[in-house]
Amino acid sequence: MSEDELRTMLAERSCIDRDALWYPVFEVPRRFGLSWPLTSDQAEEVLSELLDRQRRVLPPPLEDGQVGRGRRYVYLSEITNGYERCDTRRILERIHRAGITPAGPAFGGEDYDPRSESGWGVRPSSSADLGGKPSWAWWRAVREAGPRPYYRMPDPYVGEGSPPVDRALALREPTGNDTAYRQALLTAVREDPRQIDCWAHLGSHAFERAEADDSALSEALGFYQTAVAVAELSLPPTFTGVLAWGELDNRPFHRALHGLGLTWWQLGDTKKATAVFGNSLWTNPDDNQGIRYLIGQVKSGVAWHQRTEM
């Protein structure tokens, strides 16, 4: 296989523009001690290694000495060693180069106080209700942590005009045209990968197809991971704050976390799903999404098909 053929094959498998792969393929002889043309076995070995490098997660933004998880947000790169999509790392690096908009104080700089009247109380009921049977182990940790600052994510709908996700939905709702809807979302994230809600909607669209299409679950995982990873770029290092659902700009991130947890659960990785759901509850203790009904099942290793639905 020639250098040109390997570059073409790598582009097809990674979904990365062929021109962007010039250097890693050019470096193959030096890095792998091989010479052109490659045999089929050599090409597969090289492709596997190059794809693994593309998927390798970026290190978490932890401050010096803050390596333990403790009572803080657990970054995606602490949960998994690799991204499902080959272009996620490149997307994050692109956003880094362009400049990151950080999350800022919300609600006039107020703190979230778990011991206030708006909290869940000292001993919330574990009895089943209309939502199912809630789990409260996470709430004890939230109460013990005490007051924490509210944060607001940067505007998830960057650019002028109506949000791209709204324009995409407008293509689907009148006619049910899923193809146009999906293409509009893909175009939006290609033009500006900071569109967290578009990534999350792409994940939801793939997740909905998973029952009929086995490959769709892997696709959903890649989209949700990218949404979460992009959102995490805006979090302060070693993030311990609260991202309230009541702050509208936080909702795309929470939707992405929810979808990522569900996807890992359906894939059978309950450990990763537990970590993601834990992030949801830590950052949004009011739990507007009903994660408290899910995390106990996931933590206990209940299989997706045996879950108790809300």
Written description of the protein model:
The protein has helices at residues 3-14, 22-26, 28-32, 40-55, 76-79, 88-98, 137-145, 164-172, 178-191, 196-208, 215-232, 251-266, 270-283, 295-299, and strands at 104-105, 111-112, 148-149, 151-152. It is mainly α and 310 residues long. The protein has 2 domains: 3-55; 76-306, Serine Threonine Protein Phosphatase 5, Tetratricopeptide repeat (Alpha Horseshoe), CATH 1.25.40. Helix 8 (164-172) runs antiparallel to helix 9, helix 10 runs parallel beside helix 12 (251-266) and helix 11 runs antiparallel to helix 12. The longest helix has 18 residues, at 215-232.
Quick overview of this protein structure:
It is built from 14 helices and four strands.
List keywords for this structure.
two-stranded antiparallel sheet, Serine Threonine Protein Phosphatase 5, Tetratricopeptide repeat, two-stranded antiparallel ribbon, 3% strand, globular, 2 domains
State the CATH superfamily name of the largest domain: Tetratricopeptide repeat domain
- How many independent structural domains? 2
* Secondary-structure element pattern, one letter each: HHHHHHEEHEEHHHHHHH
Numbering strands along the chain, what is their spatial order in the largest sheet? 1-4
Class of the largest domain in CATH?
Answer: Mainly Alpha
What is the number of helices? 14
Which range best describes the helical content: under 10%, 10-25%, 25-40%, 40-55%, 55-70% or over 70%?
A: 40-55%
Query: Helices and strands: which structural class?
Result: mainly alpha
Measured by DSSP, the beta-strand proportion falls in under 5%
CATH third-level topology of the largest domain: Serine Threonine Protein Phosphatase 5, Tetratricopeptide repeat
Number of β-strand runs: 4
CATH architecture assignment name of the largest domain: Alpha Horseshoe
Give the biggest sheet: 2 strands, antiparallel
Low-confidence stretches: none
Rounded to the nearest angstrom, the radius of gyration is 21 Å
